[in-house]
Amino acid sequence: MRFPGLLPLLALLAAAASAHADPPPRARRRVARDYFRHTISLGASVGVGSPLGLTGGFVELRPWRALGVSVGGGLGGNFGPSVAATMMVSPVGTRRWALALETSLSHHVAYAQGRALSDGREFPGSSNWVGLGVASEWRPSRSLLLRVAVGRSWLLDTSGYGVIRQRELTEAEQAIGFLPGVTAVDAARAAMAGDTLGVWYVHVDIAPTWRW
User: Fold this and answer.
1) pTM (whole model) above 0.85
2) What stretches of the chain adopt beta strand conformation (E)?
3) Is 27 helix (H, G, I), strand (E, B) or coil?
4) Mean pLDDT throughout 121-137?
């Protein structure tokens, strides 16, 4: 038995079902995630003249892409072990690399006191420094920080080292100069000249990193 209108009716129903079918899901757009923002890093630092000294450790928090802060401690050079706080501003960079400006405050505790001079006069038992530098920082992965920085630090209390006389410089240098580089005797020379002691520094940092 033939139904002449059956085929057109079936075609009409198929078209209506197709019109009401759910549209195909949209392709999910992948967003390139910045590797700096919302990270915390626990790292190690080696350097010369840097706020953390010859070697040290730090914790760094970077809540925003362009701003990070860190605190740490290390084994300083001739001015003794140190604790330091550093702020980094990174106005230039990509999601994996940043050019940063860093500024730091550090406090160093002298290894020993009262042995530079024979008549009881002593160099300060501690010193405070402010530093300013530039750093190049890489994030090769979401879990690793690599950084190289160079800059200059200034002794805030240079005048406190003006406790010796010109003729005593050699004696004092022999008594305290056990590491190469700038020593308290250089600070004494700067104090005699009425200057502020400045030191160039470099440090290399490496740290595992986590995102929150």
Assistant:
1) no
2) 39-48, 55-64, 67-75, 82-93, 97-109, 126-141, 144-155, 198-211
3) coil
4) 92
